[in-house]
Design goal:
Layout: E1 2-3, H1 6-22, E2 31-32, H2 38-42, H3 64-72, H4 75-87, E3 96-100, H5 102-111, E4 117-121, H6 133-142, E5 145-147, H7 151-159, E6 164-165, E7 182-183, E8 190-194, H8 201-216, E9 221-227, H9 233-242, E10 246-247, E11 255-256, E12 262-267, E13 270-276, H10 279-285, E14 288-291, H11 295-302, E15 307-309, H12 319-329, E16 333-335, H13 340-351, H14 354-368, H15 373-384
Parallel strand pairs: 1-2, 1-3, 3-4, 4-5, 5-6, 8-9, 8-14, 9-13, 14-15, 15-16
Antiparallel strand pairs: 7-11, 10-12, 12-13
Helix pairs in contact: 1-15, 4-5, 8-9, 8-13, 11-14
Length: 391
């Protein structure tokens, strides 16, 4: 497997797990084209070797400033080294699955010529901007099959002559809902605050907390922050303290506390709970989500949660990224100006309108698809590569 980003690493792990459940004899190895490949290593998939380390961490749709920083950090030279490393596996790999954008597929195909190749295309969608003619030409020529990120994109690829299908989105399998986070009526409404997974998260958390403070003026409200792996709990807690929030009992009102690391705070009638390792449970418990996240916003929409977004103060969730996500998620995502009052007003409007909440939920589920994509994808791969005959 060849991956092309932090999120793609997690999706590759989901798919690898599904493949190994069906065919335990498979030996699956993974090479990350960008980043440390920590999630791949934790799953026992990562191949030891060189890593591409750049300031952006491999951001999707980066701004020109991040591109310049990456180039100054030696991106081109590092990528050449990484491609040589992928090519060194020629003759060892019998199959290759690229998880990421078409560039990831191109690298895999170029470095491992003649090896059967499947592309799990995570980056582009016809809802935003479809694949270019050059990308389509490459997919027709080199990829045995392409798993698109939605049915509209799969249909467009098929019309262009590419063997493509949509079996759901691996993002919906890339989270765990344990049911351990149980919030009673006293905690309502529950608002999930998603600050993102990169360095911008601390700036974003300050903006999200400002919105929660305004919502708390209406009465009791519970804000849940699922801290992404790699972010520092102490730094996140300091952001909240600077805004005047004080430590509170380490549980939400009427809640059964999950066995995770957490910090709890109170300000006025607002309760704020920061939790590690509880992302899926936080989304499941939320009545509405305020998100400055890429994958997180999309997963929330796929669970049927109304999502509110605004341009964040950092570089990751800027106006361009937000507009693209609005096209991708449709009515499931409400966008506002970057003003806490405007965001709070939109949240109030959604919470007070059950019909709108239902429409947003239906739109999110339709765009993202149901869980189980990993198993459906694994089954399709087994048929294509005739592994079913070897069970």
């Amino acid at each position: 497997m060849v991956t092309n980003g932090h999120g793609e690493d997690l999706l590759a792990v989901c798919l690898a797990d599904a493949l190994r459940r069906r065919w335990p004899w498979l030996r699956i190895e993974a090479i990350p084209l960008v980043g440390e490949g920590t999630r791949l290593a934790q799953a026992g998939l990562a191949v030891p070797g060189p890593r591409v380390r750049v300031p952006s961490g491999g951001m999707v749709r980066p701004q020109w400033r991040t591109v310049v920083r990456d180039l100054r950090a030696g991106l081109i030279g590092q990528m050449r080294r990484q491609m040589r490393f992928v090519a060194s596996h020629r003759g060892r790999a019998q199959y290759v699955i690229a998880v990421g954008d078409v560039f990831a597929g191109w690298v895999a195909g170029r470095c491992l010529p003649g090896t059967p190749l499947i592309l799990v295309a995570t980056a582009k969608s016809e809802y935003i901007h479809g694949h270019s003619r050059l990308e389509t030409w490459w997919m027709k020529r080199r990829a045995q099959h392409v798993f698109a990120r939605d049915e509209r994109t799969a249909a467009a690829l098929r019309r262009a002559g590419v063997a493509a299908s949509w079996v759901g989105n691996l993002m919906m399998d890339a989270m765990t809902i344990t049911g351990a986070l149980q919030l009673g009526a006293a905690a309502r409404p529950v608002v999930a605050l998603l600050p993102g997974s990169r360095e911008d998260a601390y700036l974003n958390l300050d903006s999200l907390t400002a919105v929660l403070e305004l919502l708390a003026e209406d009465g009791g409200v519970t804000g849940l922050v699922p801290l992404a792996p790699g972010l520092d709990m102490a730094r996140a807690a300091e952001v909240v303290r600077r805004r005047g929030w004080v430590p509170a009992r380490r549980e939400a009102p009427g809640a059964a506390q999950p066995a995770v690391r957490d910090e709890a705070f109170q300000k006025g009638r607002g309760f704020l709970w920061i939790l590690e390792g509880a992302f899926g449970d936080v989304l499941a418990a939320a009545d509405v989500v305020i998100g400055l996240a890429g994958t997180g916003n999309e997963q929330a929409a796929g669970l049927g949660k109304p999502v509110v977004a605004f341009p964040g103060p950092g570089v990751q969730f800027g106006p361009r990224f937000m507009r693209a996500q609005r096209l991708l998620l449709g009515e499931a995502l409400a966008v506002t100006p970057p003003d806490p009052g405007a965001v709070a007003a939109e949240v109030r409007a959604i919470l007070s309108d059950p019909a709108r909440r239902a429409r947003m939920a239906a739109a999110g589920r339709e765009r993202m698809g149901p869980p189980g994509a990993a198993d459906r994808m694994a089954e399709a791969i087994g048929r294509l590569w005739k592994w079913e005959e070897q069970r």
